[in-house]
Write a structure and sequence with these properties.
The complex is a heterodimer of chains A (127) and B (349).
Chain A: H1 13-38, H2 47-75, H3 90-121
Helix pairs in contact in A: 1-2, 1-3, 2-3
Chain B: H1 2-9, H2 22-39, H3 53-85, H4 92-125, E1 137-144, E2 147-153, E3 159-164, E4 166-170, E5 175-180, E6 186-189, E7 197-199, E8 205-209, E9 215-221, E10 233-239, H5 241-252, H6 260-268, E11 298-299, E12 304-305, H7 308-316, H8 318-321, H9 335-347
Parallel strand pairs in B: 1-5, 4-10
Antiparallel strand pairs in B: 1-2, 2-3, 5-8, 6-7, 6-9, 9-10, 11-12
Helix pairs in contact in B: 1-2, 3-4, 6-9, 7-9
The chains are: A mainly alpha (127), B alpha+beta (349).
């Protein structure tokens, strides 16, 4: 079976994947709840539905970040060498980027979880 | 309370230790340090001396943060001393592990717990009630530069009467405050009863509060609104239910009766263009309503004690008491007239 994950990712774009997912998740969560409440949509759709939808969206975002961390971990050689990876070689550049991406993915994961915590507690629109 | 604090910090501090009295001196300094701290834990305007459930929530959050902060700070300082004094050198691996667990995992977990706790506490600190909550008393408070217009609304939502710089509420009953501003952003804050709420031009914000014990408290403007922002306070009277009802009915039928000569001067010198006194011809709405002024806790929205001398001083030079206040000065009036008007206002019940 051919894996859907590319065999090798060596572009700078992977570095931005997790923070981009974080930013998107943040904007979608805040905008969705703000519009939902400001437009008085709670009368037609239950707030619980919105929470459920954002909960699923959160899980998707986290899955995306986990995938990005896996790619980064692989790029880092599964932790085979210790940082700082500062030699002027292609190998070290790759490891450095992989390690940086892994750290950024960790940060983004935590940030997405934090942004989602209020969903557990906030159950209605309050002006 | 503020006076006590001033008095405490204003005590003369000895310039140096006297022979044979070192212990006593040190003790005195300690008292000087500790007393203002203790004094600030109680009083009419202290978040740490709550008189309602919302304020109690704020105080609980503060103490939780304080204790947590002290524990973490002690840990960090302990590690610092350990790192400075300990001769033993740890391996890079141990150091890496410390950074991972102490520098990444620990703060992440602590912050997540704090965030969860804070969000969980929010409904208790700012409970929300639907507009149709039956029978909830409504008081409309408008922040003006630099005073508070207070209107008590009837069940139909229309003002029954107006007053200023003083809020009266019954104990144990949730009251809704409708907060407005015609000029700049102010913020309505009664620290012993709950968190603050901004008053934004063009908006009507809503805050509900309940007082747990009767007493006289102090509210302040908590958003910088101009030169006299700090001189914009109000008195909060939390009254027993029957006293409150009695006050309401007395206030509704207030006659404005008093020294007839004082009232005549008040009207002749044009005060009524801006001020109202119910039961009289004075119906101005630009400035604070002065009905029952003699009973108010202060002159100039919490600026001066309510005495006839202070009232006269305010009439002569309002700007000298409250910079950039909108009331013009009346220093051109005869002293006797000003004093008569001041006495009349002080006598209003």
């Amino acid at each position: 079976m051919k894996s859907f994950i590319p065999r090798e990712v060596e572009t700078l774009w992977t570095l931005f994947t997790a923070p981009t997912v974080w930013a998107l998740h943040f904007v979608v969560c805040y905008a969705a709840v703000a519009i939902f409440c400001a437009k008085g949509m709670a009368e037609e759709i239950a707030f619980g539905t919105l929470r459920l939808g954002l909960g699923i969206f959160t899980l998707l975002a986290l899955a995306m970040i986990v995938l990005s961390s896996y790619l980064a971990w692989r790029q880092w050689g599964f932790g085979s060498g210790d940082p700082p990876h500062d030699a002027a070689t292609r190998e070290d550049r790759k490891y450095f980027q992989g390690f940086a991406t892994l750290l950024l993915s960790g940060l983004s994961f935590v940030a997405v979880v934090y942004a989602a915590i209020p969903l557990i507690f906030i159950a209605e629109c309050q002006p | 309370m503020n006076d006590d604090r001033l008095a405490a910090s204003g005590q003369p501090i000895r310039s140096g230790p006297r022979p044979g009295h070192n212990g006593i001196c040190r003790h005195d300094y300690l008292l000087l340090l500790v007393f203002p701290l203790l004094a600030s834990c109680s009083g009419v305007q202290s978040v740490l001396d709550p008189a309602g459930p919302e304020a109690a929530g704020v105080a609980t959050l503060f103490y939780t943060m304080l204790i947590g902060g002290v524990v973490i700070w002690s840990g960090v300082v302990g590690l610092f001393f350990y790192a400075v004094r300990k001769r033993k050198v740890h391996s890079t691996k141990t150091a890496g592990r410390l950074i991972l667990w102490g520098g990444a995992v620990f703060p992440t977990v602590v912050l997540a717990a704090l965030l969860g706790y804070g969000v969980w506490l929010m409904p208790a600190m700012r409970p929300w009630f639907q507009d149709d909550a039956r029978g909830m008393r409504r008081i409309e408070v408008t922040g003006e530069q630099f005073w508070w217009r207070v209107r008590y609304l009837g069940e139909d939502g229309k003002p029954v009467f107006e007053t200023a710089n003083e809020v009266r509420i019954p104990v144990g009953e949730r009251v809704a405050f409708l907060l407005k501003s015609p000029d700049v952003i102010h913020s309505f804050w009664i620290p012993v009863l709950g968190g603050k709420m901004d008053m934004i031009p063009g908006r009507e914000n809503r805050l509900t509060l309940v007082a747990g014990k009767p007493g006289t408290y102090r509210g302040v403007c908590a958003e910088f609104c101009g030169p006299s922002h700090a001189l914009m306070a109000f008195t909060v009277h939390v009254m027993e239910r029957q006293d409150y009802e009695a006050w309401l009915s007395a206030r509704k039928t207030s006659s404005g009766a008093g020294d007839a000569e004082g009232l005549a001067l008040f009207l002749r010198h044009g005060c009524a263009a801006c001020h109202a006194i119910s039961g009289t011809e004075a119906r101005g709405t630009i400035g604070p309503d002065l009905t029952g002024f003699g009973e108010r806790g202060s002159v100039g929205a919490g600026t001066l004690a309510n005495t006839a001398e202070h009232i006269a001083r305010f009439i002569r030079f309002p700007d000298g008491v409250k910079p950039e206040v909108r009331m013009p000065h009346f220093s051109m009036l005869a002293d006797a007239d000003v004093e008569r008007i001041a006495a009349y206002l002080k006598g209003l019940r």
